[in-house]
Specification:
Elements lengths: L9 E5 L7 H11 L3 E5 L2 H6 L2 H8 L2 E2 L7 H15 L3 E6 L5 H4 L9 H25 L2 E11 L11 H25 L2 E7 L5 H4 L4 H11 L7 H12 L10 E4 L10 H7 L2
Parallel strand pairs: 1-2, 1-4, 2-3, 4-5, 5-6, 6-7
Helix pairs in contact: 1-3, 1-10, 4-6, 6-7
Length: 270
């Protein structure tokens, strides 16, 4: 059901790879709620994914951009505003990659070149996107920026390796930049800490299936789906959440505040 929550709003959505991507679901819901937006991803990710299909479904233009490059981000913003016919009202940062995780390199023996690459792509890209928007005055007053994160930024998970540190940086950037952008233009910046989700990136993590089931047992409401996450992001883009900023918002069915569930106890007690 649509409520026209984003009618007349303009935005940029990053990171939609395929139909399982949270960003893909956000794009569909934003479109249903009346938004117009540009889709963007790195050229190599676009070759791997199905973003053209999403562009057709939502009537959106695709503007490729490497989010680690300030010059390409500047072009993304200027081209997006030209195409959409005005400044932006929302931006979704859904960019994440860890070579250390892909190669199953343990946290205690990280490859630091891979570590730096992961930080550049997954966290510093967020700062760059905010800094460029700030410099170009690309986001309207009371606009909203949302970045996707995970509980691994707050707690130790043996399988999450360097992404724990990188997501912690991402969340810190939201708080720090949220203060400055809020003071200047009333722009809101938040992170959404989502349940384990069966995306292409998530499912590639070693042991993901077992952990997904573990989190499902712990969460009173169960794991939040990508569709539910999209609904939450849309609410944060809307005017209904104008005073929410600099927050790390848990969207995980209660997982983050549950110590242990009865179902988990039943599973281990003989």
């Amino acid at each position: 059901m649509a409520y026209n929550l984003l009618k007349g709003k303009l935005g940029i959505i990053t990171g939609a790879l395929d139909e399982n991507s949270i960003a893909w679901k956000v794009a569909l819901r934003a479109h249903e709620e009346g938004a117009k937006f540009v889709l963007t991803n790195a050229p190599i990710a676009m070759r791997m994914g199905e973003i053209n299909k999403l562009a057709e479904q939502t009537g959106s233009k695709i503007i490729p951009a490497d989010a680690t490059s300030v010059a390409e981000i500047e072009k993304l913003y200027t081209d997006s505003m030209e195409h959409l016919g005005g400044k932006l009202d929302f931006v979704l940062h859904s960019i994440g990659m860890s070579v250390n995780m892909r190669k199953d390199i343990p946290y205690t023996a990280l490859n630091y070149d891979y570590y730096q690459k992961g930080a550049d792509i997954s966290a510093l890209s967020f700062h760059k996107m905010l800094a460029v928007a700030y410099k170009l005055d690309a986001i309207n007053e009371w606009g909203s920026v949302v970045a996707l994160t995970y509980m691994g930024a707050q707690r130790a998970y043996p399988f999450y390796t360097d992404m724990s540190d990188i997501k912690a940086m991402l969340e810190s950037i939201a708080r720090s930049f949220g203060y400055h952008y809020g003071k200047l233009k009333k722009v809101r910046i938040n992170t959404v800490s989502q349940s384990p989700t069966k995306t292409k990136a998530g499912s590639s993590i070693k042991g993901f299936s077992e952990f997904y089931d573990f989190a499902e047992l712990q969460s009173p409401l169960g794991n939040a789906s990508s569709e539910d996450c999209a609904n939450y992001c849309v609410s944060l883009f809307s005017d209904l959440t104008r005073m929410v900023t600099m927050q790390n918002l848990y969207h995980d069915g209660g997982y983050s505040t549950t110590g242990v569930s009865q179902e988990q106890l039943n599973a281990v007690v003989k």
